[in-house]
């Protein structure tokens, strides 16, 4: 008898395409949050698939902390050109300059938390009613409770204890004026699924994900990249090592891992063998046990 | 190859694994969180930083051994109160399958959460504390698994270590459970496994203490349950989700109907009927980004191109021409109420079914069910949170559906309170 089973990657792909099409059908002004990281790159790929042969019906929105890896920005601009996408940028620097937020000081200063204000301001400015994100439930414990369609009140806040039940594949995107939704089409993907999918689909990634030589320093069990705006303690010493990113975010909170993996197969082998979670290398999650939950309630990605 | 051996996840085979979604049901203290922790721990799906965090928390709380249950607590309030509030989704993989667990809490808003978790599950694990045997809640769990149409049920009789791993205890509970489910789970794929989640017996590794048990461990069971028949492969159902019209010169006349196949196998050339228009046409092409397909089946997301130019929009249904779904604007449904504000007889709600949005009025409550005894309580005028009942409703426009027992996608509905926009009920059309 013929086998009518989809592989796990095809089933997850189909689910994500379904969710993206629901967004286009249920919302008037959606946007796709694009960070230059692998998850949002996969989202762009899925969006191209969902609306083929038409262009995907939403712009990319990048919340720019100004503390970027150059490679990520170059990659972003190339991708926009290649797929003829529309790119909008919300600038954290601008939020600082206009006094909307105050820059953190000290050795652990990061613009990660400040992004939330810029993100919410940008959503309000363009009147977006849905922001599509690459968040996954396997990433972090607060995210394990996230819905595909996640409601945000008019202050952009998430109320984790009072979420709408989500049943079958029926998504309720009804809202009042001024409220919006965060939508997570790859909720059910794991880090391994994302990498396997990138391999299967031959999706292009920024060079940061592959091994390269970089000046790094060691702090609290994590390698961080040396950069002009990264304050270092006197005891910390930069050294040149072969590293790669496991996630790509703002430089100040993206941990690098020692690695010689220069192709997708090697990266997947490395991830299969690794004993630390993906976000274990994220400096932003180390602030407290509920760091992610607290940021998400306020409107973080 | 066992789950714990090193696996090369990049090789071809691991790109082609099956996905099994399951839900877990148990009463408070049946050891559900411990069981999930055990599955993740023994299948090596937990990472060092997660382990460290739980080790630290276990010591802090004064526990003797590693508290596996702590792996499943997500929100701050849950960690503080030591309870689970909301459905949480967990992920793990073995070289044979990938798994998604809908982890539903044992007490607060129990029914609402279990119904939510069960709605997408291929399998349900029902936990029974061997010391207590089959209790009222067990009936409730079995009934919800049945009501939500979960095709496979695995009953795990837990804490066998506390009863000397006694075969007699196991057989007694199995007989009690079978006696009850003869009523609600007829013909269901039903299995029983004696386990100790705490000690790890028969979860991932076979127990050395229960040689009388010849069956599979829980993980082997989850790895081998056949799931290829879990979708309706007979009745062709394609709810139109979105119309694709590229405004470009190259695709000037392209008009594609995007959606996810809810039932049956579609081929180019198949004769179909478009509802509600009631017009017959043929499938010209099944389109995807990667090129046209020879066939498409659930749960694939595709785009259908048709032979004739017909006015079709979101909410319409494309179905096999000789095998139509029901088209009706009044019908009976089982319903689970999920909102603190009770359902009112004659109340009006927004309703979603497939991609269709309508409004409805509840014009009859046949009965409310006591799900612990399955007793039908007639003459009620409302339905409170976590209650299940049978209602009759009328809609502003017809729906195109199959009975839920035939098709879990086309036969399901949700109700939405139009004042708050909250999802207030889940319904299974009869």
Secondary-structure blueprint of this entry?
The complex is a heterodimer of chains A (301) and B (430).
Chain A: H1 8-26, E1 30-33, H2 38-51, E2 60-64, H3 70-82, E3 87-91, H4 92-97, H5 115-125, E4 130-132, E5 149-152, E6 180-183, H6 191-201, E7 212-219, E8 222-225, E9 239-245, E10 256-258, H7 264-273, H8 291-298
Chain B: H1 12-15, E1 18-25, H2 32-42, H3 48-60, H4 76-81, E2 88-93, E3 97-103, H5 110-118, E4 123-129, H6 136-147, E5 152-158, H7 167-184, E6 189-194, H8 218-224, E7 237-239, E8 242-244, E9 256-260, E10 271-275, E11 279-287, E12 301-306, E13 317-320, E14 326-337, E15 343-344, E16 348-353, E17 356-370, E18 375-377, E19 382-383, E20 388-401, E21 412-416, E22 423-429
Parallel strand pairs in B: 1-3, 1-4, 4-5, 5-6
Antiparallel strand pairs in B: 2-3, 7-13, 8-9, 9-12, 10-11, 10-13, 11-12, 14-20, 14-22, 15-19, 16-17, 16-21, 17-18, 17-20, 21-22
Describe this protein's structure.
The complex is a heterodimer of chains A (301) and B (430). By secondary structure, chain A is an alpha/beta fold. In chain A, 31% of the residues lie in helices and 16% in strands. In chain A, β2, α3 and β3 (87-91) form a beta-alpha-beta unit. In chain A, α1 (8-26) packs across α2 and α6 (191-201) packs antiparallel against α7. Chain A is globular, with a radius of gyration of 19 Å. The longest helix of chain B has 18 residues, at 167-184. In chain B, α5 (110-118) runs parallel beside α6 and α6 (136-147) packs across α7 (167-184). Chain B has 430 residues and is α+β, with helices and mostly antiparallel strands. In chain B, the strands form four sheets. Chain B has a seven-stranded antiparallel β-sheet with strand order 7-13-10-11-12-9-8, with no helix packed on it. In chain B, strands 2-3-1-4-5-6 form a six-stranded mixed β-sheet, sandwiched between helices. At the A-B interface, α1, α2, α6 and α7 of A face α3, α4, β2, β3 and α5 of B.
